[in-house]
Amino acid sequence: MKAILFTRVRYLKNFQFWLLGIAAGLIAIHLTVTWRFGDINLLGIAVLFWLAVSSLIWRKRSCLNLDSDALSSFLGASIVAVVLLKSTSLTGSHFIRLSPFMSAVGLALLASGFKGLKQYWQELTVLFFLGVPQVILSSLSIDPSLITARYAAFILWYSGFEVSRQGVYISLPGGGVEVYPGCSGLENMTYLLGLAILFLAMFPMNWGQKILAPIVAVTLAFLVNGFRVAFMTVLAASSHPEAFEYWHKGSGSLMFSLIAVLLFGLFCLFSIRQQEPVKRDTA
Predict the structure, then answer these.
(1) Res 90: pLDDT
(2) Which Gene Ontology BP annotations are present (predicted)?
C-alpha cells in the first residue's frame, strides 16, 4: 500500500512538472510570436494577462484535481500540437489572438479532463477576453468608424475648429483624415474590456461593480480614441507630416492607449477602496 501511494505521489509530481514545462513553453512561444509580428499593444497586454493567469493558478495549486482521461488527454494534446505547429510561422493576427485561449483549453484538458474544466473557469475567461472578442467582432465586420468620426468631429467643433465631415472623412481648412477601421478604436475597446475582466478575476467585487467595470472600460477606450482622432486631424491640417507619422504609427501612437489604461486603473483603484470599508464592517 505504501509503495502504491509513493508511486502515485511521484507520478503526480512528474505530471505537474511536465504541465509546468509545457505551459511555460507555450507562454514563451506566444510572446515571441507576438513580438516578431510587431503588435506592441498586444504584447504588453499579453504579458500582463499571462502573469495574472499564472498567479491565479498558483493560488489554488494545492486544491486542483489533476485527473484526466484518455480522450481528454488526446484532445488536449492535439490542441497544444496545433498551437505549436501554427506558431512555427507568422500566420496572421487572428491566430496570435486565439492561441492563448486555445493553449489554456488544451492544458486544462491535459491536466484535468472535461470534468475538471470548471476549476479553470476564471483563467479561461481571462484568456478568452485577451483576443477572442476582437477576432469575433472583426469576423462579423463590425466597424464603429462612422460613430468615431462623428464623435471626433464634435470634439473639434466644440473646440472652435471649422470642421466638416462627410461619412468617415473629417476635414479642416488645411487638411483632414479618414477614420478607417484600424483607427475606429475597436481594438482598444476590446483590450480595455479584457483588462476589466482581468480586474474582476483578480479582485472580488459586488454585482454593481462587476456590471460597471466593463462598461467603463469600453467607454473610456472609445472616448480617448475620439480625442486621438481629433488630434490626428489637427496634425494633418497643420502640414507637419513628421509629427503626424509619429503620433499615428510611431511611439506616440501608444500614448493614447496608455492614457486610457491609466484612467481605467484609477477607476479600478477607486473600486477597490470602495470595497475596503465593506470588508472592515463584515470582519
Answers:
(1) 65
(2) proteolysis
